[in-house]
Amino acid sequence: MKRPLPKITTPLLIFFLVISGCGLLNSNSPVNAVAPPTEWEIISEAGEQLYPSMAIVYSTVQWDVQDKTVMGAPGGVLGVSITSPSDNASIKVEMSSTKLIRKSVFEGTLPKKGVTYYIYPYLKYDYDKLLQVRQTFPEDITATVTVNDTRLGEKTKTVTVMSLNDCVFEVSNSDESTEEVYWMYAAYVNEDHPLVEKILKAALKKDITSFSGYQGEPEDVKAEIDAIWQALQDRGIKYSDVSVPTVASDYVYTQRVRLLGDSLEGQQANCVDGTVLLASILKKIGLYTYLVMDEDHMYLGVDLDEEGKNKIYIETTMIDESTLDEAIEAGKEQYKLDKKSNKLWIVSVDEAREMGVMPLKDMGNKAE
Question: Which residue of 28, 132, 153, 282 is 20 to 30 Å from 80, comparing CA positions?
């Protein structure tokens, strides 16, 4: 079983859509409850896992769901599926969890008898707790359903809450195909992080006196990027190839991504970490940035002019020991190879922001 595919109103360079996987649950109906007139189950976008990054980002994305069988929160990751026992059946769904979700309620009407509907209540997450999760732990998701004033009982699904560092980029369907949500990476670009200002302040001690963005010529923009590159090198950031997700999943594909504070304070970054780090700083000074990736690698695209006529690609893994020019040359060659192979994905950070993908707030490395 799968949730019908939602549509996103704001286009990226590549359109990405999501379909859910879902799990069956055991029923714990009260002994004297009336026999339920219809079957229902808890459904989850990520099967047996709950990804904080997914729950947070999906809640702000501007979804345009055309399918009338999907009700409630357009970007919901937890809900129930139920087949309507009658035309215009009234329904009430209540959901909560052990630690992360306060009691949340959906009330509405199921229009057609025999049609399966997918109900996603607007869940009252404790977002601060979600943002602090860096270690996995079990969480019980509980739901109750009432149809036509008949309570159908209570069900519970135990999921593994994953680390905030696990970025979901593909979601499996029940037919074994996958849907790409690479725009999720843009949530790890955090132009508002307080450490960004410190990097910019350090960059001003190089060969520039201010950040004028696209007010200057392309060579001026490149000089600003170079000053930032040098400021990052001064902090001693080293390439570290750590990208394995916390726990493997049959429903979603993820990559472990360090938040900006983790990379700067730990002085380590893999290709994704370094790319979202540099993108964060360049976006802060008003530059248009792109997360460019193939099946195994990510690097950064940057416009040197406001019209996008002059674009460079930066191999961010070279931050520890190479000049910016060397990193640009390597990025140029990598882009040529990726474009020729037709295995290339590009996410515009600015377009991701327009569709509602906001930065994940860095609450510090606090274990659950």
Answer: 132
